[in-house]
Amino acid sequence: MNIAVHCPSIPSKRSLIIGSQNTKLNSRVKFSCARGNNLIGTTEIVCLPSGNWSDPIPTCEIIECEKIDNLTDPNLRIATLSRQVGGEIMFSCMQGFGLDGPTHSTCLPTGEWEQPFPTCAAVTCPWPGDPPHGYAAVSQNSYRPGEHVSISCEPYYVLDGQPKLVCGDNGEWSAPMPICVQACPYPGTVIRGRMSTVKFYYAIGDVITFSCDENLKIKGASVLRCLKYGKWSNSIPTCVSRNETQRT
């Protein structure tokens, strides 16, 4: 009487992919590993007449990319999210430097990090130029983060925008370039009086009127007009007592 030969059943192992559960004589079973793992051992076993498998059951070992300790760029910083296959490292630079290259790298099935790695270049802001009818206090080809440019206007022009531009860590200026407009500046404050419109500057042709507090009278022109070249039509008036007005 012939007894059927069977080999032991194959146990499940982490990440091991078993091609067949057949344990009969001469059965062949192939093995592989899930993505991100290396097969340690043979890729195929055969059930022998002795009832034993031809080789030990293989195992799977997790593939990891190397830990990065030494960087050639002293300004480059790395944050490791995972060193297993598919995991990533994120790149950043020290303050005042910007990435030149990818922002991250992925651990490949070969156990190597995706290349190339980035480098860190010094961040600079380009010379912003001079606005029409204006100029910058200091002129140079480039500026480091934190350095600033002060913008001024020619006579009879008023600055519309931020008078100081600061170079940011991203290599961009803190605000758009201001413009110089032909206008009249704020004329000043009337003591014990009021003005119809208060603005930083007034366009050519704008008119403002003045009035005084109770029991006071205007001394001077009560209406001012902004004329060409940014000059007011008169000096601002004053508010005086009625008695003083009568004496004059």
UniProtKB/TrEMBL annotation:
PROSITE patterns documented for this protein? SUSHI
Name of the featured protein: Locomotion-related protein Hikaru genki
Output the superkingdom of the source species.
Eukaryota
Does the record bear Repeat in its keywords? yes
Is the keyword Disulfide bond assigned to this protein? yes
> Per its UniProt record, what CDD domains does this chain match?
CCP
Q: Pfam families in the record, alphabetically?
A: Sushi
Keywords tagged on the record: Disulfide bond, Glycoprotein, Repeat, Signal, Sushi
Where does the Sushi domain lie? 5-62, 63-122, 123-182, 183-241
What are the cysteine partners in each disulfide bond?
33-60, 93-120, 153-180, 212-239
